[in-house]
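Appendix B.2, paired examples.
Example (i):
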Amino acid sequence: MREDEGDAGGSAGGLASVGSPMLEVCPKAEAAKLLPFLALGVRADLQAAAVQHVLALTGSGPGRTLLAGQAALLRALVELAVAPAPAPARDAARALVNLAADPGLHEPLLAAEPGLPARLLGCALDPQWPWAEEAAAVLANLSREPEPCAALMAALAAAEPGEPGLERLVRALCTPGYNARAPLHYLGPMLSNLSQRPATRAFLLDPDRCVVQRLLPLTQYPDSSVRRGGVVGTLRNCCFDHRHHEWLLGPEVDILPFLLLPLAGPEDFSEEELERLPVDLQYLPQDKQRDPDADIRKMLIEAIMLLTATAPGRKQVRDQGAYLILRELHNWEPEPDVRSACEKLIQVLIGDEPEHGMENLLEVQVPEDIERQLQQQDCQKQERLEPAQRSRGPRDANRGSRTHPKP
């Protein structure tokens, strides 16, 4: 995600407006001139004008590259982003969102202010902080890369002696109105990125904490695809741990209906077919809509695919009528890559069981030559899909990472 470029406004106190001859002639010198006006205690209108200049610079690649070499300016920006009114904290945080959206700027950001994850985490989880959403968006962008993600994990571990930081994060994400002044949707992709790490998954999958069960209703969250996608990405990452599949599919969690419901439409099933479906998937209303976000639909399919890695998992998924929902989804699905993922899952469900010793699909060792052939086929298929994908426009840069969790 990048914030929209705001109007930088007119010049104030000797500050040249964005695009002025002074900035074009010597942008590095002009950026350095902004630094005194970003200090805490400077007159509010001058401070606000300087931050708007910085925000405008973060809206372009050359501007971000320029700021990456200004460590003192980056530190000043962080100070303003966590400062109380009348400091222009929101615009400062929006500038950090744009900077953090560029992975190449993570290193200079953390070098300028090593405590950045911890400071922004305090703002994001503060129920009274008005710009908590912006703070969460910065952290969602930063946590896409390993080093800042590890720094954020360390900040969470040190957050509260009495309450684990991850528990506080989940509570903020799952509690309606946790912050009356900020929606906190970007806590979803932040948690999705964190769930790539084994320690986070161990926390989420602890049967005594009841964390996954609190996340499940958010797969149907109607007000934000950002929050919904972050939660689905988190659940998908949790499904990589096949040791927990029996628990996830069992009555304590019962994850499958929550993964299937967003994929279900208003189709009519026969009475015999309805009996095979979980109660929550029976007699759906005629106005039932599938999740409108293709990326989320694909992640839901991938999560179910992971749950079919073992023979007991495949049996449980079959027994709950998943094929019926996927069959109708396949007939409806307009996106080629999502349709392809659906086909692969259907083949697993209706195909023959693997031979003895290969029942766990996550542990099967594929010969290198076969793996290369499969990768080549996937690349060729992706090339055929690209024209359709390009027509959809840019992807949300703050969506949780799609990379596999670390073992």
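Example (ii):
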Amino acid sequence: MPKKGRRLKKCDEEEEEEDVPVKQMKIMNSSTAPLCFDSPCDFFQSLISPVGLDEFFQQYWEQKPLVLHRSDAALASYYRSLFQLSDVKQLCARGLRYATDLNVCRCIDGKKKVLNKAGKVKFSQLKKDFEEKKATIQLHQPQRFKDELWRIQERLECFFGSLVGSNVYITPRGSQGLPPHYDDVEVCDLETSSVMSAALICTVVLILQLEGQKHWRLYQPTVPLAREYSLEPENRIGPPTHDFILQAGDLLYFPRGTIHQADTPSDVDRSTHLTLSAYQNMSWGDFMLDVIPGCVFDCMRRERGMRSGLPRNLLTSPSIGPDVNKQLCAFLRRLADDLEWDNHELRSTAMKRDFISNRLPPYLLDQGDVDPVGKPPSIEDTVCIRFKEHLLLTVEPSQENTDEATELVVFVLHSLKNKRETHMMGASDDDDDDEEEEVISQGLRFPLTHLSALKQLLRSERVPAAQLQLTQDEDKLGLMLGLWSEGLLCICQTS
């Protein structure tokens, strides 16, 4: 077991300054506020301080872990306030359910053993399993209940432009909750105080140690930047490359695919840490799956060859011959040429809709905050967009069922009506049938001719209505009134 606070080093090697993939930094007390929430960029910078944004993304992001050991009493106190074991007791009184909201588990002989009961969680039973069976408590998506975690994850979703989920792990002394594994998300853990040893592979992972201590071991990835969660037997992953202890106020980042495991030392009561995960299904390959169909759709409208029929019985043939492969390669080269030389604008639809419909609403937003503000705008006013960080534009085929030719339209999608209480919990059976209608109801539809004016509004702090990039004043008023009625636009006060 490493001594707490010791320098991170490679196992079975002499300590070297140049080749240490995990950076450990000692941060002394600071009189400034623990975290800055002024903007998403400022928040993330304060989260990883003193490492700068450029240094983080050039040297660590998707490359190697980063460990920040801190000696900051104010930051440790703030981390501790984010979640504690006493919070679980209060939440049990609100009707937490096993599996849905909370798991109880322990790693025994290298395997995860789930100790869940049926139905609602009783804290007395949960505490008994925690103390007597050395079980780890894993609470799913605590931002649903804790306002400050809502605030943190909302800032991170704005910064990364992707969904950010979280779990809290509380592990008793001398215990481990999960076997070695890796995830398909980028993870950041904030440790609290519990005893737990688990090896994980994640996408973007940030770990915040909230209280107590946790002993971490990191391993060389078996699948770099893995796309799925996987358990890995210790006889396959080999010895750990890094071995260290996190204390309250410390932070750990490791890239997707990093195998890891963690346990609570036997000389502390418990360990609590917060795992923040992001960037799941946010690879170049995922983006291509989203935008290429739109490129093909546009190319089919221009290219007669792509509209010609397939060879007879192609779909029923047991295999596809080289001639078909050759023709597909020719079409793909044509698509690539169009993208490179014709300045073709890529249209992401599915990824944008998934993000905007499932992300957190703005922090502490009340329903009254999304009502129209002030009087309706006129052509003489100067206007500005509200909640700009929570708006997205998509260009996609009209979803109306008509006999007319398919036309492209612009959707303004927003997350103002999303429910914080269901964030990252998946769709319930009751919601499945209405899922698409719910997404559409959270946005507005405009003709494609309005796209330039919408981009103008999103890129500018304020825009005189008369200067909106639309030909007719009637169209300018229609655009402004549509946004204003949805609570997305207001009249700027003159200075």
